[in-house]
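SUBJECT: A protein chain and its fold
Encoding: whole-number codes for local backbone shapes
Chain under study, with its fold:
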Amino acid sequence: MRKSMVIIIIVIARTIYSAYWFYLAPALPIIGTEFRVSKALLGLVPFMFIVGAASFQIPAGIIASRLGNARTAGIGLLTMAVTGLLVPFSVNFYEVLILRLIAGIGAALFFSTGAAVLSTAYPERVGTLLGIYNAAFGLGSGIGLAWGVTYALLGWRLSTLLLSIAGIPVALIILFIQGGYMRRLRISFSRDAVMIGVATSGFWGAYYAAGSLLPTYAVSRGLPLYTSSLLTSIMLFSSIFGGLSGRIIDVIKNKVLLIVVLTIVGTVPLISIPTLNVIAITIAGGLMGFTNELALTAAYTLAARHENPALSLATLNALNMIIGMWLSIIFTETMVISYSLPWILMIIISLALLPLFRLVRAT
């Protein structure tokens, strides 16, 4: 298959994969009411997804060393689609949690392997291609959140079912792509990937918590569900422009400094969200979406320089998730105490880990 066609397929798959991250976020208030679950416990839904994704990042990199990056990515997307088909048939909250855990494992199988397919296709354009890859995440995430509008028309179960079906044919196509196959199992970890993963985990976790739980936060403050879903989707759609700006990363030499500046610009405005001012939320969310996507693209570009890019990217992403996933729990737990405290903590944690970049050797 031609390289250009492979890139197109992977980008489409990335978009669908991303929608599967956030399409249940607008349904959380409904799920909480239907299954009689407290608001504090709703944070377990995104948390369990990240547990699955974080715990299987490294195994996914190892599996890809045997099966190939593309085949592993196809299996991952297929897993996410199938679990999504089963979620609407859940009869209790615990079944939803288990299915999201398995979906997270599917996400782990797709992320680093899909990125590795792109980074090995055109090594001289890694920043640009990974930027497009991350822009697709912003597009898919925004679609997933905006999908919440259909819940009012079709109900969350039927809407979830329809979106889940879309991933199956794309996953099957990816399984036939031949790429990234390694004849021997090569396990080699990157020290820089570890440092970068820890340093960016706060910003990653803040973005994921905001994307997953802003609808729940806004509804609890009195905003309609469709309004809160659309406001959150603005944040995720803005990340598209961050990803499409990946060319900047290929040009700027000091990528570490770029990541630090982007993190500061992206997190500090979050302090304005508790005002519930629509303009403030739009600006803060837009800045966070743009800067987060560009910062993570720069981080992925640094990690992809390793001899085994899939495993290096898996290491970085695993640390992002293992550390960052706790912010979703912190968010919902502190939300019942204070409406400002969750956002203050998002800012502090994101900035507190940045000094670890001083241990990164490659800039």
